[in-house]
Amino acid sequence: MLDLSNLNLSSKLPERWRNLKLACRIFWASNPKSARIVLMLTMLEGLLPLALVHATQYAVNGYNDTPEFSAWLGGPALVYIGIFSFSQIGISLVSYFRLNHDNSVSDHMNSAIQEKATTADMIAFESSEFYDRLYRAGFESEDHVLDIVEKLIILVSRTTTLVGLFWIVARFEWWLPLLFCAASIPLIATLLLHAKARYQWSKAWTQTERESGYYNGLLLGNENAGEVRIFGLQDHFRKHYKKLRSKILQARLTLHKKQSMHATLAHLVSISLLSIGLLFMADKVQSGEISMGSAALFAHSSMLCFTSVKSVVGESASLYRSSLYLTDLSFILEMKPKIKTPPNPSSLPDPVDMEITFKNVIFSYPNATRPALDDITTTIPAQKVTLIYGENGSGKSTISKLLYRFFDPNSGTVLFGGKDIREFDPQKLRAQFGVIFQDAVRYYCSAKENVTLGRVDGPFSESQYEAAVKNAELQEMIKELPDNENTNLGRYFQSGTQLSSGQWQRLALARLHYSDRPIMILDEPTSAMDPWTEKKWLKSLKKNSKHKTVIIITHRLSTAQIADHVIVLKKGKVAESGPPDDLKKSGGYFAGIEKSNMRQF
To answer: What share of the chain is helix, strand, coil (3-state, %, to 5)?
Structure first.
């Protein structure tokens, strides 16, 4: 079962630092060369305001000291204009390189999440909490990683500026920098509290956000469009969607209203403290203790100092808020699969020896009220066609998931060629299986690529491709496509051709045949086929799988005609097993179901 208890969502400082370090690692690892350029330009950007305030003092004093306007314009004013222009060019350069680096960060992070999601234990996907965290990591963390990177860059720039400004202001009175710092305290406290509150709000409303996204997908999805219209579900789903979005909006407005009141009060306190310094310096100017140039220097420095302090405080609070969101990204990136290669993996058996045995296997899904498999003991013979039959929910598909080691049993053993499957490398074990899942994936690419996706780790084989198409009874369908085998399928992309459910299923069967693996597992392979196509395909399957182990999972007895062995499941237990003819003669559960089906037919 997925253990999510090790993720501490409390606001402990070490965890925040770990998240900030994670963002910095992503920032650097995505493109070290670009990261260096961005940091260098950011430092330069931080120094330019200091040059500008000194240029202001030089220009104002020069105006008073230079008798001719043209001389002033060609001297101090020109210096000021030059530094100001250079600062604007610098800002544009930083923005350009930062935007490029943001794209690198985004691609790097998405690649890391994709790798973790595709290597995570399949049991994780049985947990709604895992989906919540994957949602926050994949759909929210990208913005927050970029936000942290951006805020760190701005912090470097603003802090560089602030240190210089404090030095300039302290030359007038030593206590003025302390006053500016004191004025920032109410803002710091307010912004940090708001950051935590927004994260807690987001965490509390993730389920509702996902639920509203689900209804939005039902309304917009191509696969749902027909049924939504037939049953007139448009208004019903829109009503649910609007209700959920209204709840989210109301909750967000309530939070914003409360935080706006706090922010207004904090700004009033900060402005009151800053006014003390401004009034003090105004008195100095009026008494003539400082020159007009020095007054301009102080005024410009004070304005920049206040905005820089406010910026540093704001960016720090944003860092704190974004670091909270990275808890989920950190969790996903630090996930380690429990199903992994043993230190000394065993060699896989030859296909002729690939007999599969379940010994006292018990398996339960997370939060299930009863086991999906309850003390299963049975054997699947090698190089035979085995039918696993049972009603919906009897545990048929779970057996196949244990075979691929998507899951491990809670107790008991699964043997493969006489050895515990946990002794093998999981990837090499899975490479022995060609599979059609119950809901075959619809790949929106060409018909030919749909088939050849069955084996992407080897060179293309024309003869095997043609054999796979023939075995799946696809020749006529491909000939009728607008561009034959090169026709793009599905309506998701432009110029795609849609197929029927049965045609998609036969494409999946062709993909299975092209994979050419020693064990074939077919989960409800003929559920979308008409009886004539099903009969032809079953005959072809039997003919072309003489040296393969074939496992057909179904609740349709029509496939029993090609089975050498039958396993009947009932409520997670083996009701009976053996050759189909023996089961028919025994008068047991399987025989009763077959007679019932014949009477209905």
So the answer is: 65, 10, 25
Q: Which residue from 14, 1, 13, 22 is spatially nearest to 328, judged by alpha carbons?
A: 22
Query: 544: which DSSP letter?
Result: T
Rounded Cα distance between 261 and 103, Å, is 36
* Residue 353 and residue 361 in contact, taking contact as beta carbons nearer than 8 Å: no
In DSSP notation, 37-74 reads HHHHHHHHHHHHHHHHHHHHHHHHHHHHH-SSHHHHHH
Question: Which of 61-75, 152-166, 353-367 comes out lowest in average pLDDT?
Answer: 61-75
**CA-to-CA distance for 294 and 59, rounded, in angstroms?**
11
The residue among 247, 19, 24 whose CA lies nearest residue 136 is 19
pTM above 0.85, yes or no: no
Distances (CA, A) of 536 to 103, 164, 530, 541: 52, 83, 10, 9
Comparing 31 with 599, which gets the higher pLDDT? Answer: 31
At 534, the amino acid letter reads E
> d(Cα 284, Cα 555) in Å, to the nearest integer?
93
Q: What percent of the chain has pLDDT over 70?
A: 87
262, 306: one domain: yes
* Same domain as 503, residue 390: no
Comparing C-alpha atoms, which of 82, 85, 81, 103 is closest to residue 93?
Answer: 85
**Domain of residue 417, residue span:** 349-432+519-528+547-601
The mean pLDDT of 411-426, rounded to a whole number, is 92
CA distance 432 to 29: 36
Q: Are 477 and 536 in contact (CB under 8 A)?
A: no
Of 207, 124, 127, 152, residue with least CA distance to 39: 152
Place of tokens 């969101």: 325
Number of domains into which the chain is organized: 3
Model confidence pLDDT, tens digit, residues 108-151: 888 888 888 888 888 888 777 787 777 777 666 666 777 777 77
258 in helix, strand or coil? Answer: helix
Q: CA-to-CA distance for 256 and 594, rounded, in angstroms?
A: 65
